[in-house]
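[Help] Beginner question about ligand-bound structures

Sorry if this is basic. My supervisor gave me a protein sequence and a SMILES string for flavin mononucleotide and asked me to "get the holo structure". I don't really know what that means in practice or what format the answer should be in. Inputs are pasted below exactly as I got them.
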Amino acid sequence: MKKDILFQPFTLKSLHLKNRIVMAPMTRSFSPNGIPTEEVATYYSKRAAAQVGLILSEGTVINRPSSSNDPNIPHFYGEKSLEGWQKVIQGVHQAGGQMGPQIWHMGVMYNHHSGWVPPVPFEGPSGLNKPDFTNGVSMTEKDIYDTIDAFGQAAADAKRLGFDCVELHGAHGYLIDQFFWEGTNLRTDEFGGKTVVERSKFAIEVIKEVRRRVGEDFTIILRLSQWKPQDYTFKLTRTPQEMEAWLTPLAEAGVDIFHCSQRRFWDSEFDGSDLNFAGWAKKLTGKATITVGSIGLSGEFLAAFKGESSQPQSIEQLLERMDRGEFDLAAVGRSLLADPNWVEKIRDERTAELKGFTKEALAALL
Ligand SMILES: Cc1cc2nc3c(=O)[nH]c(=O)nc-3n(C[C@H](O)[C@H](O)[C@H](O)COP(=O)(O)O)c2cc1C
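Answer (accepted):
No worries, everyone starts somewhere. Holo just means with the ligand present. The predicted complex, written as structure tokens, is below.
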């Protein structure tokens, strides 16, 4: 049966996964003062016990005074937060799973709806969240190098605490992506430039530092997207040649797996081929890739934030593409947020029991 392809083991450096299903990183804002609670640990260990191959944590922020715009988003620094994360990974391992934190700096953000603001202004390459919206300061060279160091420290802590890999959040219009994007990076120093390749210096330095801190054998995942919440249709690269020029130096800097974020995994990346982003990233770099975006669901996730519910949908096309070797792993977001047992239901073909997704699932850690 085709679905067996999803249940093949996968090994790469420190990862030894029982299947190809990854829980996508999903911010939940249930960690008061940045400290993951017992409930957070239980939320993840339930998914590990129910056969998720690899869990990627919600975005968890690095040690910079304005790396977050929300006091309930977990930190990946400070004794209490790291103790909380230690309990998370212990629980996941006891339940037989593997996990990596998604380490994150949000860059220049909108202020949180609660009115909470960080102690210092948001920081980014040019103080911009999008081309016409300034809500922070331009980072000095010292800020940049301190931030690179903070990413390295977080990755080293992930390894020390016993996590199985680390993911860098380079997608969705946050700090690393704000450097990639010409709309938010107007710098004229070595961290700016006319091409996405020139504007990749920040990401490359972060990856190199993370690699230096975790060693050769620890798996580094980099999450990227062409689209941004600021502009759904945007593409950083418009041809395979441009994409190759963007991704190759990132791979050479130390990325093991590219996590290629799309809103719908079946959308082709460039005209003339039905390969998706993960398909092209694998073909162009030879690295392993993760695909993501509306797997097993009828509607995409940004519409879900506006209240649109999604029904379960066949995963046939995912299996066909995986069978062709387009990508190695498949990340599932909302289905696993709403239902810890999604993987087992897929494995056992209990399709009538699949739940779909409604916005109400966001209100609690199920
Ligand atoms: C509630 C929620 C929070 C999210 N938070 C993050 C995040 O912290 N980091 C990230 O890279 N993506 C985040 N995403 C995007 C998901 O990782 C995933 O790419 C997206 O939901 C598409 O997968 P799905 O269609 O299976 O839900 C979030 C999505 C949701 C629904």
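A couple of things worth pointing out: The chain has a mean pLDDT of 97. The longest helix spans residues 141-161. Feel free to follow up in the thread.
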